[in-house]
Amino acid sequence: MHKIDENLLLPLPLFSKLEKEQVRTILDQASRRRFETGSAVFHEGALAERFFLLLDGTIRVIKLTADGEQITSIHIPAGQLFGIGKALGRTTYPATAVAASEVLTLSWPTDVWDKFATKYTGFATETYKMVGDRLGELNTRVVDMSTQHVEQRIARALLRLIDQSGRQVEEGIEISFPITRKDVSEMTGTTLQTVSRLLSLWEKNGLVISKRKKIIICNPHQLNILGKM
Asked: Of 34, 205, 212, 227, which residue is the least packed, with the fewest Cβ within 10 Å?
């Protein structure tokens, strides 16, 4: 296996305060693995034996409710850590991590977490900042589901996705990983029928293009207005 060039990681916030030699030392302790779309990196409740850095692709974080319903809590873009049970004071994974697209990961044994957090300047602070950002996103979603109409929730969810993982295409901004209407319904706490009805209406009005496992935002400004109405 070819070594990953440490220069590729130095711009990431997690490594930005480290020397090149320090990043090389961290990389030399990592295992690299590719996961196909739809495959689980780890499952909720499993022993958190490793933590991961997403090099490429998008991770979908899934929680199960008490009655067994599957809910997509957040999406994690490339360049971020995930599966960091140790940072949360947990010995098990709090959710299931699924490859929303083909992903490439680095991972380390959980046993080295404390050493990394103590020895490498910025590693811990950037990690906890990232955790805080995710908790903030989750809190926003809870508030949205409590106070916003369905149309607002769906509009805001799509805008968050293109902000995190959007790429410019001819028709607009495309969510860069496969996403279905069912995924959107799980993210927004609404029914598949409601999501399908709204996306079909928005497509008719030129706001989005919704195809099989693909959503393109054609008019982000108008969608932003709907999210605030």
From this structure: 212
